[in-house]
Amino acid sequence: MSYFLTQVLNGLSFGLVLSLIAAGFAIVFTSTGVLNFAHGSVVLLGAYLVAVTHPTIGFWAAVLVGVVGAAVVGVLVNALLVRNLADPNPGTAAILMLGVDILLLTELTRRIGNRVLPLGAPWGADVVRFGGIALPAGRVLAAGVAVVVFAGLWFLFARTRLGIGMRAAAADGPTASLMGIRLSRTGATGWALAGVLAALAGVFLTSFPSPGVAPPVALSAFLAIPAWVLGGFDSVPGAVLGGLVIGLVTALTVGYESELHVLGGGFGEVVPYLVMIVVLLVRPQGLLGSKEAVRV
Amino acid sequence: MRKTRPALVAAAACVFAVTACSTTEPEAAGGGGSGDVETGNGVTDSAITVGVLTDLSGPFAAGAAVQVTEFQAYWDQVNADGGICDRDVEMQVQDHAYDPQKAVSLYRSMSSDIVALQQVLGGPTSAAVLPLAQQESVYVGGVGWASTALQYENNQLPGASYSIQGANAIDYLVDELGLSEGDSVGVVYFVGDYGSDALAGAEHAAAERGLTIVPQEITPAVTDLSAQASALVQEGVQAVVLGAAPAQLASLVGVLSSQGADVPVIGMNPTFNPALLDTPAAEALLANTYSITSVAPYASDAPGVQEANALYTEADPDGALGWEVPLAYGQAQLLRTALEDACEAGDLTPEGVVAALGNASDVDTDGVFPDGLDYTQVGESPTRTVFVSKVSDTAEAGLELLDTYEGPSAQSYTFG
User: Fold this and answer.
1) What residues does the Leucine-binding protein domain cover (chain B) (predicted)?
2) How far is B385 from chain A (nearest CA, A)?
3) Distance (Å, rounded) from C-alpha B274 to C-alpha A24?
4) By the CB < 8 Å criterion, does B117 face chain A?
5) Which candidate, A213, A185, A198, A163, places its Cα nearest to that of A67?
6) What is the complex's ipTM, to 2 decimals?
7) Is the Cβ of A127 closer than 8 Å to some Cβ of chain B?
8) What top-level class would CATH report for the domain B162-293+387-412?
9) pLDDT (tens digit, 9 = 90+) per residue, A62-78?
C-alpha cells in the first residue's frame, strides 16, 4: 500500500509541475490563439537564468530574475513576432513558434554546453518523510506553489476586470475589441503569465530529483503537451486536470511495469499519448475544453 | 490542378540540382600515383585530408567541440613531427547539427575530397552515413560504441561495444561488488542502438551468472526518475546498470539514496559528466557509483592519456575536462595507424585505408584504449576489455580509474 501511495504521490507531484507548463500553453492559446511550441525553450530559459544568477544574487532573487526574464521574453515574442504576422493563421503562428523554439534552444544549448548547471535551490536533495513514504522536498514545495498559483489564476480570471477581459477576448476577439477591451493588453498579459508559469515550472523541473539545468529540460516541457490537449486546448482548469491525470497515469504505469509487461517495455513513455487519444475519441473538446458550436 | 505542373517541374529541377552535386567524378579531386604510393581522393603530394562530421550546433555541441579541439591539436603535432607519408594531415570539419539528412548531404559533398572520415558523431547520423561510406569504401571512425556499427568493415569502433560494457557491468557486480546468484539488477536504458545494446549485454551476462534483470526503458526527456527508482526499490534490486545520460544518472542515484537504497549503480560510457559533482546528487554519486568505459578516464596515468590531456590543456586551457579528451586523442591515433599502414602497403587511397584497417590485429594506443585492439573480424568487438572507474571528488574530471576488466560473460557474448 505504501508503494502504491508513493507512486501516486510521485505522479501527482510531477503532474502539478506538468500542469504549470500546460496552463501556460492554454493561456497563450486562449489569449492570442497561438500554439506556442516555443514554450519548452522558455521553461529552459527561466531555469537557466536562475542557475546563472543565483551565485551572485542568491536563490530567491534569482528566481525573481528567471520569472521576470521569461515573462519579458514571452511579451517580446508576442509584440515583435506574433502581432506582426502578415497572415494571422494559427498554422503560420505555430510554425513561427517552432522557429523561435529552435533559435532559443540553440542559443541556450550553446551557453550551457555539456554542463549540468546547479540551480542552487536551498532544499538541495532533502526529502520529506511521512509514514513509509519519502518525497523530494522540492516536489512538495512545487505542489504548494502550484496550488497557490492556480488559486491566483482562478481569482484573476473570475474576479478581476483584466481576467474577465482576457476571457472575453478569448471567446470572441473582434466583439471584445468593439466593447473596448484592448486585445494587445490581454495578449501581452497572457504571454507574460505563461512566461511566469514556465519559469516556475523550470525551477521545479531542474531541482532535485532532477540534477540541474541541461538542454533536455526543454524536451521535458513537451511532456506537458498531452496534458494540455487532454484538458482542452482553451481551458486552464483543464490543463491542471490534464497534468494531474498524465502525471498519475505515467507514474503508475512505470511503477507497475513488471505487472504490465504484456504491454511491452517502456509503456510508461507512450501512455500519456494513449490516454490523450482515448479521451479525445470520447470527448473531442478535451476534458474541460469549450465545445465548438457548428451551425449546419 | 493548374499548379501541379509548375510544382512538378520545380521538384524535378531540385532533384536534378541535388543529383548534380552528388555525382562528382570520384577521382577528380585528388588521384593518381605519387612515388611508390598509390593515392586517390583526399590525398595530394603534400596533404592528406580527413573529414569530421560532427555536431557543433545541436545537442552534443559542447562535447563535440572538445573532440574537434583535440583532433586538431593531435594532427598539428603529427604534422610538426613530419606528417604521415611525407604529407601534412588536414581536417575538413562540417557541422551536421545531429541531423541525419544533413549528415548525408555533407558526406556527399565532402566524400570526393577526403581519404577517410575521422568521426561521424551521433547514433542516427552515423547510421545514415555508414552504409554510404561502406559502398564507397571510405573509412569511418568515431561513431560511438553501438554493436550495429560492427557489421561495416569500414568502421573502426574505438574500444568495446555497449553490449560488452553491459556484460562486463554484470560480471563486475558479481566478481567484485558481492552480488550472487538469485539477485536482481535493474537496467535503466534509452531504447535504441545505445541503451538497448547495453541491455542485450547485461541480459546475456545475467543469464550466465544466474541473475535476474529488471528493465526500465526511458527517453532522454525523462530527467526525474522518481517513479523508476521507486519501482526498482520495490522489486528489491541489489544494483542498477544505467545506459542513459548524465542527467538520468544523477536523478536515479539521488532518488535511490533518498529512499535508503544503498545499492551500487554502474553507468555505461556516456553517463558520467564531472559537472554532476556540483549538483545536489553529488554526495549520493560519491557513495556508490561506478562507470564502465571503453576509453580510459581523464585521470588515468597511462602515457597516452597524459599526452592527450597535455595537448588539450595547451590548446584550450579553459576547456571542459572529461573522457572526450582521451577519446578524441585515441580516435586520432587509430586513424593515424590506419593511414600509416596504408602508406606502408603503398595504397593511400580510401580503399587502401579500409584494407589497412581490416589487417590491423594488434593495435596499441598507449593505454587510451585496452591494448591489442583487433579489427580483422568484421562483426566482432575489437576488444572485450573495459575500464572500471569510481566517481571521486579527488580525481581529475571526477572518475578514479580502478582497473581494466574483462569478465567471463563479456568473453562469451556473441554478436548476432
Assistant:
1) 48-392
2) 27
3) 34
4) no
5) A198
6) 0.84
7) yes
8) alpha beta
9) 999 999 999 999 999 99
